[in-house]
Amino acid sequence: MTEILTELEEPKFSPIRMIAGNLTARPLRAVLSILAISIQVILVLMIVGLTTGVVNEWGKRVEGVGADILVQSPNASIFFAFSSAVMQESFGQQIAALPGVDEVAPTLSLMDQKNFVVIYGIDYKRFNALSKGFLFGSGRPFESPDEALADDIVAQSRHLKVGDQITLMNHAFTICGIVAHGKGARFFIPLKTAQDISGAEKRVSVFYVRSKGDTEATRAEILKLDPNNRVRSIAEYMTLMNSSNLPELKPFIKTMVGIGIVISFLVVFLNMHTLVLERTREIGILKALGFTRAGIAQLLLGETLALTIIGSIVGIALTFLTKAVLTQTVPTLQISITNQWILGSILLATIGATAGALYPTLRAASYDPVVALAYE
């Protein structure tokens, strides 16, 4: 008899079953909340993945050229396509005469705005000598001013083959060779042609330099020629090619992350606020049955956490699906999604959703059971 009275006085509830039941009882609202949270996760992962992927991939392509040292003008960007061709080509002869220098390749970097690709104007023999050389999948080096090399990634994405015609910088070129990617640019054209197209006669954007072994000593020698130039080792350059080290990208990433949190906050806030109003009588019944304020808050926050977990899983799955589709359709677009940012996106989603649910939860927990039961 005592056990029966105890069970009647202290009813047992399954929070998980109650949370699941409340979510399935309002499927449309639950789906909208999950969608909003997943959009936040997708937004964060795609923005960070794109910026990180592009920056890292560009760094690896520069490293793949085979040089030890980069020589640029004082105000040049670390993204060569956005640097003006202001360095005299003849300066390369002074660099080549230094005892610690093995090879120098003057390079003019161009950005084709229409095709959104980086083009290198190169002295083929000198550029090729920086490393083991271009690896040809098909074709041969360019022999005339209107011939160009394309790397295999851009060739795949644009269905290019040897002999095809392509327009770069409003100038017609014939593809004479398809080479392995990783040599800085997507397309390579003769240096003189690039100078004529850009109006940069006998000027270049950067000198790729290969030392004879002592990189720092060679770097110091080059600086003595003109202390105003930017002379970086490839190792130093690679440390800069990180989205977290680029001040221009930080505000952009923070803004996108902030927008994601605001979206999650507003949707969850509206959802929970409406949910609390609709369930006022239900909350009154629960409190009459013995639920404490903490118990009510735990129940509502549990629903928010469940929505956040489901929304995060959906968002991560959609992000990888989007990445797979873009990789197939746009091979030149690099997206880097790290475990660190996957966890970060889940944490940000949880923060936004919890902040949105906090006020409605506290309001529900403070209801007087008598007033709540009388609510219509």
Distance between the termini: 38 Å
Helix run count: 14
SSE string = HHHEEHEEHEEHEEEHEEHEHHHHHH
Helix content: 55-70%
State the domain count: 2
Subunit arrangement of the protein:
single chain
Radius of gyration: 31 Å
The total of beta strands comes to 12
Briefly note the structural class of the backbone: alpha+beta
Given as residue ranges, the uncertain stretches (5+ residues, pLDDT < 50) are 1-11
Q: What amount of the residues lies in strands?
A: 15-25%
Query: Which descriptor suits the 3D outline?
Result: elongated
**Rounded mean pLDDT score:** 81
Q: Quick one: biggest sheet?
A: 10 strands, mixed
Textual characterization of the structure:
The protein has 376 residues and is α+β, with helices and mostly antiparallel strands. It has two domains: 181 residues, no CATH class; 155 residues, no CATH class. 55% of the residues lie in helices and 16% in strands. It contains 14 helices and twelve strands. The strands form two sheets. Strands 1, 3, 4, 5, 6, 7, 8, 9, 11 and 12 form a ten-stranded mixed β-sheet that branches. The chain has a two-stranded antiparallel ribbon with strand order 2-10. A hairpin with a 2-residue loop joins strand 7 and strand 8. Helix 2 crosses helix 12, helix 3 runs antiparallel to helix 10 and helix 3 packs across helix 12. The longest helix is centred in the first third of the chain and has 37 residues. It is elongated, with a radius of gyration of 31 Å. The N terminus is likely disordered.
